[in-house]
């Protein structure tokens, strides 16, 4: 049994300063960042990874960023187009609890949300420099869902061929997914790797509060034979399905 991965485009963060994504490299350049949910299927199970940002209005008001999120980026509609009923979906994995990965929480009434314990503890009470990305002072929107979270600690086999591993750096309890396809193993990197460039040139993806941890994680991942699927790189959409 192997998995297929379908990236669902939940919007675009437009015209972001590149230096914030590639750790001071590319000053004066701007990039568009795709936001994704990832639909994983193995013929029996259906699992969703990450939930994108909430709305254009929310992104502008709380984060002062331009988010292009039109009806074509609607999570419920995209799931439906792939034969998945959002009301019935039971299994979601969150790579981490930053605002642009949890916007769809209220849209999945039957789901449990798998998250790392370190990430939850950190996200509930982050240090001041991380208040904004966890929306600490503006409602911490993941808190109402805490009873539906499945909390794990470190490496965790979710199903045959699908394993969560801790990949700290971008956030302390960030997790990525090892996903076995037909002939290759994919790493759904989440924001540990925002763009291909972060991996190819070994440049921490921004923001990376713990650069040392990021490099330790890199050394571990470099030992693996995986195909990297970065968390915000629009080139991922060149293929409809990865299997
Ligand atoms: Zn993030």
What are its keywords?
243 residues; alpha/beta; Metallo-beta-lactamase, Chain A; seven-stranded mixed β-sheet; five-stranded mixed β-sheet; 28% strand; binds zinc ion
Widest sheet: strand order? 4-1-2-3-5-6-7
The CATH architecture is: 4-Layer Sandwich
Helix content: 10-25%
Q: What's the multimeric state?
A: single chain
- CATH superfamily annotation: Ribonuclease Z/Hydroxyacylglutathione hydrolase-like
CATH domain class:
Alpha Beta
Number of helices: 5
Shape: globular
Record field, number of beta strands: 12
Give the mean pLDDT.
96
* Alpha-carbon Rg, integer: 16 Å
**Whole-number count of domains:** 1
Distance between the termini: 11 Å
Sheet-strand content, in percent, reads 25-35%
Q: SSE order in H/E notation?
A: EEEHEHEEHEEEEEHHE
CATH topological fold name? Metallo-beta-lactamase, Chain A
The biggest beta sheet reads: 7 strands, mixed
Low-pLDDT regions: none
| Bound ions, cofactors and other small molecules, one mention each | zinc ion
Describe this entry's structure for a reader.
This protein is an alpha/beta fold. The protein has a single domain (4-235), classed as Ribonuclease Z/Hydroxyacylglutathione hydrolase-like (Metallo-beta-lactamase, Chain A). Helices cover 16% and strands 28% of the residues. The chain is built from five helices and twelve strands. The protein has helices spanning 56-63, 75-81, 117-124, 196-200, 211-222; strands spanning 4-17, 30-41, 46-49, 67-68, 91-93, 112-116, 149-152, 156-159, 162-166, 175-180, 185-190, 227-230. The chain has a seven-stranded mixed beta sheet with strand order 4-1-2-3-5-6-7. The chain is globular. The termini are close together. The model has no long low-confidence stretch (mean pLDDT 96). It binds zinc ion. The site of zinc ion (ZN) has 4 residues, from loops.
């Amino acid at each position: 049994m192997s998995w297929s991965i379908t990236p669902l485009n939940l919007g675009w963060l437009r015209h972001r300063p590149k230096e914030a994504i590639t750790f001071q490299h590319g000053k004066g350049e701007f990039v568009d960042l795709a936001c994704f949910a990832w639909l994983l299927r193995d013929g029996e199970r259906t699992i969703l990874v990450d939930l994108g940002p909430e709305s254009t209005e929310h992104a502008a008001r709380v984060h002062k960023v331009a988010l292009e999120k039109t009806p074509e980026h609607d999570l419920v509609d995209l799931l439906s187009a792939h034969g998945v009923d959002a009301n019935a979906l039971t299994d979601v994995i969150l790579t981490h609890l930053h605002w642009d990965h949890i916007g769809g929480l209220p849209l999945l009434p039957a789901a449990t949300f798998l998250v790392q314990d370190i990430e939850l503890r950190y996200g509930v009470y982050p240090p001041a420099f991380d208040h904004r990305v966890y929306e600490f002072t503006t409602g911490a929107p993941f808190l109402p869902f805490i009873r539906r979270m499945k909390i794990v600690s470190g490496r965790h086999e979710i199903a045959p061929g699908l394993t969560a591993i801790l990949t700290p750096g971008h956030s302390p309890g960030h997790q990525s997914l090892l996903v076995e396809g037909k002939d290759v193993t994919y790493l759904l990197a989440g924001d540990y790797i925002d763009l291909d460039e972060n991996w190819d040139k070994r440049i921490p993806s921004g923001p990376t509060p713990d650069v040392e941890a990021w490099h330790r994680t890199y050394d571990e991942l470099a030992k693996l034979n995986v195909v990297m699927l970065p968390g915000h790189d629009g080139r991922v959409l060149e293929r409809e399905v990865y299997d």
